[in-house]
Amino acid sequence: MVEIMLFNINGGNQMKNKIIIIIICTLLLLPVFSFSTIAGDPENPEVEDRIRDVLLFGLFPFLPQFNFKYVDIISAWIFEESDNPEYLYMNIKIRDLQDATEKYDAIYVISWAYNSATYSASVHISPEGATSLIAGPTDEEGNDYINYVVCEGDIDSINDIISWKIPKDTIGNPSIGNKITNIVPHTHLRYPESSGIPMVDLFKDLPWNAKITKDYQIEY
Ligand SMILES: [Ca+2]
Ligand SMILES: [Ca+2]
Fold first, then answer.
1. Do 55 and 164 belong together in one domain?
2. What digits encode the pLDDT tens for the residues 70-100?
3. Is 42 inside a domain boundary?
4. Ligand 1: distance of its center to the CA of 73 in Å?
5. Centre of ligand 2 from the C-alpha of residue 192, in Å
6. Residue 55: enclosing H or E segment and its boundaries?
7. Same domain? 32 vs 96
8. For 69, left (φ over 0), alpha (ψ -120 to 50), or beta?
9. Residues 6+ apart with CB under 8 A from 184
10. Distance from the CA of 45 to the center of ligand 2, in angstroms?
11. Which ligand is nearest to the CA of 209?
């Protein structure tokens, strides 16, 4: 507006029209450009879950959810770095991630499919703190790793994000244009193994009620 008024004062009507056209074109193009350049980031996640939806035994809704914010998934996304193309980064955002739990063993998992095989990345956080971050191919049910690697990554309880930096050659070597599908973040709460109590999932957050689920296309 400031620019348009400036040219109006100078009597440049043609210039004014040009400026208006440029501004309109810029406004029209802006959403298109931003949409195509921000795939796979926290603002445009591959999975957007609902909150306050942790389930008892993975089946029953309950309230209040205040004590279960540390296993309540908000979203999950994948990204790559052009100067680090041999890695795929898997990320889960939690409502209130803790470095250690008070009582339970919390299991954070992101599973996906690529080229007819299934993969997971996971970490346990218990009263003793976090285990290593691991990732690898899983059996058909997705319950057990066929093999796995310990990977780099981050458990960031300030920003409530768990990140796995996974070497692509340990997860089927997806290459440019390939699609990562069936992206499924999930959390599980159990009594720790040391408790001697049977290790069944008492609470879970599952993505079947997610607002958004989409595939990820390999960029590099
Ligand atoms: Ca959730
Ligand atoms: Ca959910």
1. yes
2. 999 999 999 999 999 999 999 999 999 999 9
3. no
4. 4
5. 23
6. strand 55-56
7. no
8. alpha
9. 47, 110, 111, 112, 207
10. 14
11. 2
Q: Are residues 119 and 100 in the same domain?
A: yes
Parallel, antiparallel or unpaired: strands 161-167 and 149-156: antiparallel
* Overall number of domains in the chain: 2
Domain that holds residue 89: 47-217
Q: How far is CA 89 from CA 62, 86, 152, 165, 188, in A?
A: 33, 10, 10, 5, 21
Report the separation in Å between the CA atom of 31 and the middle of ligand 1, taken as the mean of its atom positions.
Answer: 28
Q: How confident is the model at residue 34 (pLDDT cuts 50, 70, 90)?
A: very low
pLDDT digits (tens, 9 = 90+) for 124-142: 999 999 999 999 999 988 8
| Residue in the block written with tokens 């970490």 | 123
Report the predicted TM-score, pTM, of the whole model to 2 decimal places. Answer: 0.81
